[in-house]
Amino acid sequence: MAVADPVPLCFDGLTLDPAARTLLNAGGESISLRRSEFELLLAFVKNPGRALSRDYLLEVVAGRHSEAFDRSIDVLVGRLRRKIEREPGQPKLILTVPGIGYRFSAKPSAVVLPAEGGDEAGSTSSPCAPRLSIVVLRFANLNNDPEQQYLADAITDDLTNDLSGRPHMFVISRNTAFTYRNKQIDTKQIGRELGVRYVLEGSVRQSGNRVRVNAQLIDAQIDAHLWVERFDRDTGDLFALQNEITSRIAVALDLELIGMEAARQTGHHDALDYILRGRAAIFSQQPTRDVYAEGISLFERALALDARSVEAQSLLVSALAARVLDEMTDSAVSDITRAEVLAEQALARSPHSPVVHYAKGQLLRAQRRLGEAMSEYETVIALDRNWVRAYANLGWCKFLTGAIGEALPLLEQAICLSPRVPYTGIWYNWLGRVYLLQSRTDEALVWYERARDSIPAHPNIHVHLATAYALKGETERAAAELTEARRLSSDNRYSSIARLKAAEYFGVPKIRALYEATYFPGLRKARMPEE
Fold first, then answer.
1. What integer pLDDT is reported at residue 133 of this predicted model?
2. pLDDT (tens digit per residue) in 146-193
3. Which terminus of the chain, N or C, has less C-beta within 10 A?
């Protein structure tokens, strides 16, 4: 009976061929491994999810048992991590099991190669393409003017760099991507050759003092457009224009790709799968009690599979704090207590991660420690200029601490960079409050109504609408909004002004004085009692 040749196996964008004794990256390039490193990797790949002792691994690699103080396997694992892990300092593939040895977290799958002589053009992209893998092709310069090519190339470069900084994103280098310029190749072939699931392409056209940028995200497996956007802007400040366009595309793509990957059917669920599904649940839907519960449950399941996952810890902290801030929990005290423990663990393990600092900022804001929260949000922006929620939350903290003039630009920037995300209704509500406290009630009403249309389940939006309508003399509409706020609230804070003042934070004395001059008189006109 003939023994079948061992088939190639893929994991995390890498392809291990036991027969050929090769390891290839997503682009098909060979990763050089010593014999001992290859044998160690093969042992891990053959035993996914199992805790393997150092003694067992040494027997596989060297044919001997370990002795006291023998750290040769640890040294070998360190070398292997540097070759296959994206962040060797924070390994995701080869995990340490204290007191035992190591565990391989990935679940390899067999590579199904095209039949010999088969229709290559009909095959899909690389079966080993990492989940969030993308190539940004060189944006086309439709003016055919070499002097205008710099803007198209600058946008391509910025997008490549910005996407590379997103968690779990696998981005093909600029130099490799540019080898496809001026070539008529379909996206399926590009996906196969580069080992990516997605292709981003676009074009730039200038006419007078106007510039138009088109961008398209394509699924390389089926050659289908997933997302298309067009930007028309004045060319007064090209650098600012370039920043705005690349940031908007990067933010939109991050949400789109997370949603696509979360919706993919997989044969198994690992920690990353639950993280992606949790992110999609919370960031792709209007915030509600059920949405928060779903996201938190998914992040908890990710932690159950990988208790040391800094991203799962941080996202769980953010979700717990957010539902406290949005008045969508009946367990605020326990939510904050759990978030405090997780935040400290995440910060200790990854002190330079924007995900961690954002989570810490959310927790501090929920605890009304606004000065410390602002510092965390500023750190996030310094680490990742496209973290839109950090701009908005920093703006709101600025407002509550009295810097109204600094708050408006930050809130407007967040809305400009991410105008279509489901949670912009919260930012609309904040803008409405800024205008209300400046006695610009008509402008406030515009933003409040947009906020209500965006997030109808948010009680705080309805109570502010009640105030604005009452100030305009529309008492029936004010009463209806107040009734809805009370129905949606998790406590009885909207039953009286005294309870509302006890439940919420209205900023520093300067801001509280503005609330006393506008917001609370409106609530009294809406017939909210004092006690």
1. 85
2. 777 888 899 899 899 888 877 778 888 888 888 888 888 888 889 888
3. N
Residue-by-residue DSSP string for 413-428: HHHHH-TTSTTHHHHH
User: By CB neighbour count within 10 A (0-12 exposed, 13-18 middle, 19+ buried), where does 319 fall?
Assistant: buried
Give residue 44's Cα distance to chain centre. Answer: 30
90 with 44, same domain: the answer is yes
Q: Give the residue-averaged pLDDT of 483-492.
A: 93
340 in Cβ contact with 334 (< 8 Å): no
Same domain flag for 205 and 150: yes
**Total domains, the chain:** 4
pLDDT at 99: 82
For 524, the domain range is: 404-531
Structure tokens given for 396: 């709101």
pLDDT at 344 over 90: yes
Beta strand 210-219 pairing with 224-234: antiparallel
Most distant CA atoms of the chain, gap in Å: 90
Task: In whole angstroms, give the CA distance from residue 141 to residue 482.
Answer: 54
The two structure tokens encoding residue 309: 């996952």
- State pLDDT tens for residues 380-433: 999 988 899 999 999 999 999 999 999 999 999 999 888 778 889 999 999 999
Residues 258 and 144 in one domain: yes
Q: How far is CA 429 from CA 364, 380, 458, 464, in A?
A: 21, 23, 10, 8
User: CA dist 109 to 4, 115, 167, 189, 267, Å?
Assistant: 17, 18, 23, 22, 10
Q: Can you read off the two tokens belonging to residue 327?
A: 């008045």
Q: What distances in angstroms separate CA 104 from CA 42, 66, 96, 389, 454, one per listed residue?
A: 11, 20, 9, 34, 44
Tokens read off for 226: 């997933």
Q: For the residues of 99-165, what is the DSSP string, one character each?
A: TTEEEE----EE--PPPTT--GGGS-S-TT--TEEEEEPPPEETT--GGGHHHHHHHHHHHHHHHHT
Other CB atoms within a 10 A radius of the CB of residue 265 amount to: 4
Contacts of 273 by beta carbon, 8 Å cutoff, 6+ apart:
266
Q: How many CB atoms lie within 10 A of CB 144?
A: 8
CATH number at residue 477: 1.25.40.10
Residue whose C-alpha is closest to residue 14's, from 26, 29, 22, 30: 26
DSSP string, 56-86: HHHHHHHSS---TT--HHHHHHHHHHHHH-S
Residue 476 burial class via C-beta count within 10 angstroms: exposed 0-12, middle 13-18, buried 19 and up: exposed
